[in-house]
Amino acid sequence: MVFHSILYPGEEGSGGIAEEPSFFADLNLDQIVDAITANKADYDLKPFFHAPPGTLEAIRYRHEVMRDLEKEVIFAAATRFARRMQRMREKLKWSEKLYYKQQKEWWFLDAITIYCETVTGLREDLEAGDPKSRGLQGFREWLGEYSKGVGFVGLAEQAYRIKDEIAKIAYCLHIRDSSVTVCRYEGEIDYSEAVEESFRKFAQGEGKDYRVGFPEPVGMNHVEAAVLAFVARLYPELFGGLERFCTEQAAYVDPLIRSLDREMQFYVSYLEYIRPLADNGLAFCYPRLSTINKEILSRDGFDLPLARKLMEAGQRVVCNDYELSGRERIIIVSGPNQGGKTTFARTFGQMHYLANLGLLVPGREARLLLFDQLFTHFEREEKVENLRSKFEDDLMRVHEILRRATPRSVVVMNESFSTTTVKDAVFIGREVMQRIIGRDLICVFVTFVEELARLSDTTVSMVSTIVPSDPASRTFRIVRRPADGRAYAIAIAEKYRLTYEMLKGRIRA
């Protein structure tokens, strides 16, 4: 049977992309991927998270596999498989580091037997788990054929036979002064039981054990190595067979098993990352994606890295909704500072990117665009070496986005052109918005220029809200309503008794 991947249907799979996308830092996706892969360095998972598959079929394929892995029995099988493969790699690593020949070969033989147990165990686990996804069903069928094939069966039988034969070796040590002699065991009397029996009559119950345990060293000292070398000389055929076996089976791990061990961790590591959040009551869902329908929505979405920080601090996570319908394409987000506007924009970008990777996204429900490119425009520090002002740099970056964007692109802009005057910001914002509208792009634009929300029927206004009784306090809720900066100003004035009527009253007094 031919099988390729649990990440990609067919043969179009790849190992991912090593380079991190340019928008990762803006959306805090770098923090998400760093946290997911923190304890998975051996797998080199980051390239998978840098490369969305790009097709609806591939995303459906991944959703199927992830639904299987959400079942505890299959997730447990995947983690057992990973743990055993890790043990095997550790044995291989030590077999390369160790110095003495026979010990190196023994550790290599140990790695092979662990590999055989791992493959057999995974086949049994997948048969018992009864996965429904095309990916894991295909893997199970391929694994069944591979594990029952002549090559694997022969490898396992030979490895277990050599290990059993070596384990049965018995030899004697004759130690006299500084001389050690090694010889075959010829049925000499074992006096250990007689000695124990002689001293047993002095026993007075169980005493406290004062012995201190020391970790068993991996390597051998020169005396142990010399004894092992002498034993190998006593049994040349057996140790010669071990040497030939290790040489012949230098590449015993099937390339597909190695590849699927890595691919499985793409799913497992993400599920491990979101599980504490889900256990804390936050919702995750499988998004519906389309390449043509731009009527997107999210219910109870949230920023993943921020949610983890708040959860660890014992604080509440605020979730937000958004929706675009009909001709609506652009969300203009305005409102008071420190009200969650940038977090909302990041959440929007994170959800689209994670959805395009074929992963669960934060929220009860999501309908999103399968984009071809994702662009961000966040504030950058001014760089002296490029000989451009901050404003000029903003314009050049926006120009590059508009040059490359297609009708299937998603754009996230945060406080763009905030360094210029209000008049210029309004003018440039209008020009940029007209071009975004002309290209039919999905966009979130966080801005202090509220007029942009009334630019066209393709734009909608969302506003960060405050606590009515305390304008200095933020709710971090972003709601859909017309922008009206005056409402916030009036609330502040009322708090400090500075409204027109209040001032008139105080003057009369």
Q: What's this entry about, in short?
A:
It contains 17 helices and 14 strands. It is an alpha/beta fold and 509 residues long. It folds into two domains: 29-167 and 250-264, no CATH class; 280-508, 3-Layer(aba) Sandwich (Rossmann fold).
Strand content: 5-15%
By CATH, the architecture of the largest domain is named 3-Layer(aba) Sandwich
Contiguous helical run count: 17
Secondary structure tally: strands? 14
State the end-to-end distance: 93 Å
| Strand order of the biggest β-sheet | 10-11-12-7-13-14
CATH topology-level fold name of the largest domain: Rossmann fold
Cα-atom radius of gyration: 33 Å
Mean pLDDT: 90
CATH homologous superfamily designation of the largest domain:
P-loop containing nucleotide triphosphate hydrolases
Name the quaternary structure.
single chain
What does this protein structure show overall?
The structure is a single chain. The protein has helices spanning about 30-35, 45-50, 55-70, 70-95, 100-130, 135-145, 150-165, 190-200, 220-235, 235-250, 255-280, 305-310, 340-355, 390-405, 420-440, 485-495, 500-509; strands at about 170-175, 180-185, 285, 290, 295-300, 320-325, 330-335, 360, 365-370, 375, 410-415, 440-445, 460-465, 470-480. Strand 13 and strand 14 form a beta hairpin. It folds into 2 domains: about 30-165 and about 250-265, no CATH class; about 280-509, P-loop containing nucleotide triphosphate hydrolases (Rossmann fold, 3-Layer(aba) Sandwich). Helix content is about 50%, strand content about 15%. The model has no long low-confidence stretch (mean pLDDT about 90). Helix 4 (about 70-95) crosses helix 11. The strands form 4 sheets. It has a 6-stranded mixed β-sheet, sandwiched between helices. Strands 4-9-5-6 form a 4-stranded mixed β-sheet, covered by helices on one side.
